[in-house]
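[recover] target loaded
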């Protein structure tokens, strides 16, 4: 049985959210109202809900010597899709809060990773594992 992940999260408005997820990331639009919008986020369902109470990020997550924002969500991509997305983010002048880099080089779980903020300051991580069997 195939499973899909669903995440509901807060955004400041629908238009900037569409700009980021649809125009920059290339996510297909789902259902939409004036208060929320759904996206096909690499095969999974994101539901962005408008709120004026978006929590500030906290960089308390420590991975090796790298502080990562908490909370964050993301997606594991194959190497080609990771590199294509990295180029798309760069060409749209999206700032990386953690620049694209390789972690755990030569070790179990070796991966490329990068973090960006959407236009509502939600932190998103994209990863690509050298060996997909080492995700866990």
């Amino acid at each position: 049985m195939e499973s899909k992940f669903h995440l509901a999260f807060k955004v400041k408005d629908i238009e900037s959210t569409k700009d980021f997820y649809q125009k920059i990331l290339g996510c297909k639009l789902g259902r939409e109202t004036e208060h929320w919008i759904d996206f096909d986020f690499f095969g999974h369902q994101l539901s962005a809900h408008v709120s004026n109470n978006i929590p500030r990020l906290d960089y308390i997550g420590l991975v090796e010597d790298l502080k990562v924002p908490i909370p964050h969500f993301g997606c594991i991509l194959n190497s080609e899709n990771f590199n294509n997305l990295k180029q798309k983010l760069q060409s749209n002048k999206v700032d990386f809060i953690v620049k694209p880099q390789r972690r755990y080089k030569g070790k179990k779980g070796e991966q490329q990773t990068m973090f960006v903020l959407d236009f509502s300051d939600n932190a998103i991580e994209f990863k690509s594992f050298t060996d997909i069997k080492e995700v866990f």
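[recover] notes: The domain at 6-50 is CATH 3.10.180.10 (2,3-Dihydroxybiphenyl 1,2-Dioxygenase; domain 1).
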